[in-house]
Structure formats: C-alpha cells, structure tokens
Amino acid sequence: MKSRALALDSSYLFIQGPPGAGKTWAGARLIAHLLENGKRVGVAAQSHKAIHNLLNEIEKFARENGLSFRGLKKSSSDNPESIYEGEFIKSEPQFKQIAEARDRIQLLAGTGWLFSRHELDRSLDYLVIDEAGQVSLAGRSRGGDRCAKFSFCSVIHCSSSRCRKESIHRGLAHLSWNICSARRRRFQKTVASSSRRATGCIPMSAPSFRRSFYAGRLHSDESAARRNTSFGTGIRFVPVEHDGNRTASDEELAEIAKLIAELKQGTFTDSDGSIRATSRR
Description:
- By secondary structure, this protein is α/β, with parallel strands linked by helices.
- The protein folds into two domains: 2-195, P-loop containing nucleotide triphosphate hydrolases (Rossmann fold, 3-Layer(aba) Sandwich), CATH 3.40.50; 227-281, no CATH class.
- It has helices spanning 2-7, 23-36, 48-65, 95-100, 112-115, 137-147, 165-180, 206-213, 222-226, 250-263; strands at 14-17, 41-44, 71-74, 89-92, 107-110, 126-129, 154-158, 191-193, 197-198, 219-220, 228-229, 267-269, 275-277.
- 33% of the residues are buried.
C-alpha cells in the first residue's frame, strides 16, 4: 500500500475493513511513509475524536521509528475536546496562524471546514479522510479539490458495526463522480482491504459483514471466538415500554444504565483464556 500511495496521481486509495482489521494502524503508517518522503499531508474526519485517534497512532509510530515532523491541528478556543497536544502535533485555534505556517508544516489536521478554506488552496499533497463513509460527497470533493496539489484524496473508509449501507453507497457515489468527472485525468483502481480476518468481529457478526460489505470474504479471527463474558456475547433485543416519546426516552436510558451496572459485576475471558473482572475497581 505504501508504494500505491506514493504512486497515486489524481486518484484515490481506499482502506476498508471492520472493527479490529487495522485501518487506523495502516493509515497512520501510510501517513508516516508519506511524511518521510517529503509530502505534505492533511488529516480530516467528521469528529475531533476520530482525528485525535489517528494522530495518536501517527505520533506513536514517529516516536518509535525516529521520525520527526511538524504538524498543526485546528482547534476551537470554546471547545476543549478539539484541543490536541502531542510531541510533533500542536493545536492552533487561530486560522490566520495556520495559514501563515502552511509552508513550514508537514501535517495539518482538522474537520472538513478547515480544508474548505481558499487560503489553503494547493497547499497539500495528500488529504486523508478517516471514517470517510460518514462524510458527504460534497464535503469530500470540496476538501480534496481545495487542498491537494494533485487533486488527490486518500480515504480511510471505516465500515464498523455502526456503519450502514448508506455509507458504502455514499463512497461508491464519490468514486463514480470522480471517474466521470472531466477534471479527473486518470483513476487508478487501488481498492485495498487491510485484512480478511477481523480480531474485533465475533463469529456471530462475521456472516452479516461478509454478505453486506465483503463479498463473502470476511472471517472472524480465531482469537475473537475465544473472547467471552459471563453474560455471553452478541446482539440482544431488550424491550422497553414507554409512551409518547419522540426525540428522547428516559425509560431507555434507565434500562441501559441498569444493563451496564449488571455487566460491570461480571467477568471477561480474553483470547488467551485469562479471566478478569469486567469492572476494575
């Protein structure tokens, strides 16, 4: 995937996989590889939490492999959850400061609004979008066209247990738009699946993922089958009686809190057979 990423020109690389397949792990290493080769990389996602998760993995890899670079994360002065402070990546709430530093940094992170600013036109070589299935076609197109020198957008496509089919359709629509667009000179078919075995996908869930997203090729890793709790695993239906609720339900919240309290009293069995309390007091 490293060679494919460096070879891309006006094209896209997709990483698709279920929870535990290693999308963030692979994405961080691809970004580090691009930085090592002198590329300027943008990192975007729908939420600050998703961005920070990827930035943590990039920083970890950089420390362990002697990579040094300078990065900025666009934060908001009135939102503490948007602040990120790492060894190589620092937060900056003022866009003016980011625009002035654009030629002195190698990595720039933020939500889609940051990359829609005209001041960043053609300032990046690559734009990496985490959990791209949650991002609209317009948002992705706007960010990629504004920022990438090569009109290139690298997408980490997350298909988690929360990901509906609409996300896949949205991603396909984005691909189709770029294939048909006259502005796209060439489209390389570089769809990459990071793993065919998912460590975070229990055997019960794997068939559903196989049918819906992976053409029958996804399988649960053996280690996932060995994990268990004293309450079992899997999806369960819990009926809750309530009446007249439209946008909120205190009854459901109370039931969820009750279930969590019960789970915290149980035990968890790891893939190596070790058993520990679910809640560490």
